[in-house]
UniProtKB/TrEMBL annotation:
Its biological purpose: Catalyzes the ferrous insertion into protoporphyrin IX.
Mitochondrion among keywords: no
Gene designation per UniProt: hemH
Binding residues annotated for Fe(2+), in chain numbering: H195, E299
Organism of this sequence: Chryseobacterium endalhagicum
Record-listed E.C. numbers: 4.98.1.1
Keywords from the UniProt entry: Cytoplasm, Heme biosynthesis, Iron, Lyase, Metal-binding, Porphyrin biosynthesis
Broad class of enzyme this protein falls into: lyase
A Pfam family annotated for this UniProt entry: Ferrochelatase
Similarity annotation: Belongs to the ferrochelatase family.
Pathway as given in its UniProt record: Porphyrin-containing compound metabolism; protoheme biosynthesis; protoheme from protoporphyrin-IX: step 1/1
Record's protein name: Ferrochelatase
Length: 350
């Protein structure tokens, strides 16, 4: 067994969320259909999900989202896909195994990424879901999809999954340094805006059944099984660790959750409401960062940098400073390399 593992060829698959093929309304519609019909994103029974997504959301949202995508689209394509490819290229230069990318939704798919690795003789894959925090709608759906594809199309391939890394010192140090470098000289507060999820998802994925979405039974919980699966806990812990590293007082920071969809209750406080209200509390100069995303995308470049700025200024804010994601910064590529190498070495332990 040991000998077989040592002689097998290994490779890395970086997985991100994915974007529409183009900004054409039909392409955005096809993308949203695949994304929102995922039972780990809209977790209603199929018939109710189909009624909501295909009967309501897809009637109007594609046109609106297409307009938003047009404002961030580059000559090379969607920022999220372009940046993921840049990460791949830089990583490929410093590791000696093949590296490919795959998107959970749309193209290039996870299947296409695995196929490319197989074409290079790879039979053991380290799959890296590019999400620092665990969520049913991100990490879990990536693993489910990859396992489905593996069983159906590549039954001989072994896949080792990299776990959420929100609490790893190497990541926290990297994020803290990156933020510190980009902070303006004067700011009244640093806001950490994470992608939101419905509250129901938090309860649903808590194996310990102890989360009460509060300080004592969520943020400060010491129940390991809760902490390993609670997105909200992990977001607050990311913030705590980063500000401790930066030496920034808690009073100078804000945590909020963005991008909610539909009528369900999502985890609070909401970013858009926070941006409108904080100027009245004296925060006129704001720096904002989005650590649920490792690469800039529609949700950071449009929703925060453009819409968020408008909301803040509408509320009376003066200076709004968006801090970009880690993207393809060298220090982040080093972290990706270390996390991948840990898992590549795991294959030898089988
Ligand atoms: C980073 C973590 C993410 C979580 C958690 C997440 C949950 C989640 N998202 C939706 C609905 C939408 N999200 C959309 C875009 C989008 N979401 C993430 C990441 C997370 N989503 C990213 C990186 C992006 C950007 C993609 C890009 O192409 O740049 C969209 C599409 C855009 C739009 O129409 O607004 C939707 C819709 C739900 C419902 C959900 C949790 C249940
Ligand atoms: Fe999302
Ligand atoms: Fe929790």
């Amino acid at each position: 067994m040991q000998k077989e593992s040592l002689s097998s060829k290994k490779g890395i698959l970086l997985v991100n969320l994915g974007s529409p093929r183009s900004t054409a309304v039909n392409d955005v519609k096809e993308y949203l259909d695949e994304f929102l019909m995922d039972e780990r994103v809209i977790d209603y029974r199929w018939i109710f999900r189909a009624l909501l997504v295909q009967g309501i959301i897809l009637k109007t949202r594609p046109a609106k989202s297409a307009e938003a995508y047009k404002t961030v689209w580059t000559d090379e394509g969607s920022p999220l896909v372009v940046i993921t490819e840049k990460i791949r290229k830089k990583l490929q230069k410093i590791v000696d195994v093949p590296v490919e990318i795959g998107m959970r939704y749309a193209q290039p798919s996870i299947e296409a990424g695995i196929q490319k690795l197989m074409d290079q003789g790879v039979s053991e894959i380290v799959l890296f879901p590019l999400y620092p925090q665990y969520a049913m709608s991100t990490t879990e759906t990536v693993i489910e999809k990859a396992e489905e594809v593996r069983k159906k199309k590549f039954p001989t391939v072994k896949i080792n999954y990299i776990q959420p890394f929100y609490n790893r010192d190497i990541y926290i140090n990297c994020l803290a340094e990156s933020i510190k470098e980009k902070l303006p000289e004067n700011f009244d507060a640093l806001q950490f805006s994470y992608h939101g999820v419905p509250e129901r998802h938090i309860y649903k994925t808590d194996p310990s059944n102890t989360c009460k979405i509060d300080d004592a039974n969520c943020i400060n919980s010491n129940v390991d099984t809760h902490n390993a699966y609670c997105y909200r806990h992990q977001c607050y812990k990311t913030t705590e660790a980063v500000i401790a590293k930066m030496g920034l007082p808690k009073e100078k920071t804000i945590v909020s959750f963005q991008s909610r969809l539909g009528k369900d209750k999502w985890i609070e406080p909401y970013t858009d409401e926070t941006l409108e209200t904080i100027p009245k509390k004296g925060i006129k100069n704001l720096a904002i960062v989005c650590p649920a995303f490792v690469s800039d995308c529609l949700e950071t470049l449009e929703e925060i940098s453009v819409e968020g700025k408008e909301q803040f200024q509408h509320g009376g804010g003066e200076n709004f400073h968006y801090i970009p994601c880690l993207n393809d910064e060298d220090r982040w590529i080093e972290v990706v390399k270390i996390l991948c190498e840990e898992k590549l070495n795991d294959f030898y332990l089988v």
